[in-house]
Amino acid sequence: MFTIRRSGTSMMLAVLWLCASGSLFAQTFTTLASFNFTDGESPVRALVQATNGNFDGTMEEGGAQTPGRSRNAFPGAYPGGMSRSVNWSEFGFIPSGGRFNPQERMLSPRNAHGLHKLWSFFTGCDGPICGGSSATVANGAVYVGSYDGYVYALNAATGDKLWSFLTGGEVFSSPAVADGVVYVGSNDQNVYALNAATGAELWSYTTGYDVVSSPAVANGVVYIGSEDGSVYALNAATGAKLWSYSTHLVVDSSPAVANGVIYVGSDDGNLYALNAATGDKLWSFSTPGDVYSSPAVANGVVYVGSEGGNVYALNATTGAKLWSYDTRDYVNSSPAVANGVVYVGSINDNVYALNAATGAKLWSYTTGNEVLSSPAVANGVIYIGSGDDSVYALNAATGAKLWSYHTGNQVFSSPTVANGVVYVGSGDGNMYAFGL
Length: 436
What we know:
Layout: E1 2-6, E2 9-13, E3 35-38, E4 43-46, E5 59-61, E6 84-86, E7 116-122, E8 136-138, E9 141-145, E10 150-155, E11 161-166, E12 176-178, E13 181-185, E14 190-195, E15 201-206, E16 216-218, E17 221-225, E18 230-235, E19 241-246, E20 256-258, E21 261-265, E22 270-275, E23 281-286, E24 296-298, E25 301-305, E26 310-315, E27 321-326, E28 336-338, E29 341-345, E30 350-355, E31 361-366, E32 376-378, E33 381-385, E34 390-395, E35 401-406, E36 416-418, E37 421-425, E38 430-435
């Protein structure tokens, strides 16, 4: 738990900025590529960076499997009986982060005003510290954690509970799904691997303190931070520790993985670049505030926020600062990157759109309270939550409000957009699904 002081007011927030821990997608969308990797024991489908710096999200369709696609584990689980769907399988959409779904075609600036609630699922937790985990969507199911200690799997179309798994602590971490396995952290100090279809525990790994960070999974390895101050690399199949790196202070930031490098922030004010294979430090960049924000990597640039009030763009290879933009308040939200624009929220109640190359402000939109949520970008629309209890859809080009929905409590969870549906949690304890 931490205290934010602003305008003479003190409010207690429980690691909710983490819902804001996000990531990115390539700024320029030209060619997509997906590949299969093996970890030496079993095939592991991974989202990987092509030579042009672009990515492909995993897709599934009803017929035979093809590279980059998988069968729907829950047939008929999408609106309208669609047979082809897109997975948002981890917090940042892909391991490098950026929270950009380039394959969304159903929702757009022209119809987002027509969004309405399709369903909601109550987790049993009600209060401002509920709804911190952000949903992932894979193979017809929605996976999300809750302050009540459970990890839930819900039918993506109906919200019906498929299964739940009880951990020993609150679950702020956002699940990642890869090769039929759900990976997630808990405040019982453990990282869990669960069977995505049944919820059965496959393995767990115990760190030295609570795990609020959300996992990134790439090439058969799970990368995640812990409040014991370390970043961990775990074998995705067995949970065996491959390496760990100590920053000496809390790591609630969620790692981004790109080109064999792990990027992650720490409570010590630094953004770290670590060798993904060995954990050796390649470089670090110091900011004047804690780095709870999760980095996004696109086109050789790392974007991240800091409690010092700035959004930074750093050379991904050297860590050299390319530009910074001062919001004049905490930036715990994690940047989304799409089409040459960086989108991010600030505790000053605003959502910003910044030129990814220069940092120049393109527009800002003022909500009614602090923005700890991280934006999701899909087909020209920005989706983001606010402490004013609302989730917003904004025009990505202009910042104009297209739609909003008022929930029963603060929305610090970060939206997920897949297959024409927006999924987001609220402090009122509900997981919501909105569609046309």
